[in-house]
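Record 1 of the preview.
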Amino acid sequence: MEYMSCPEAAKKWGISERRVQVLCRENRILGVSKLGYMWLIPKDAEKPIDGRTKQGKELHHE
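->
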């Protein structure tokens, strides 16, 4: 399986690197794993729904 880093995922998904790290730590990205201090995110991983937004809350609770 191919992986991408937090900066790569941040650029791909249009969010901050810090937010990607939080999503990894909260186990919200399918297939994520940690190697030392670095998060390994599957290249084909989908951006998680943002539960902080009204739209995200509606999608999250269906």
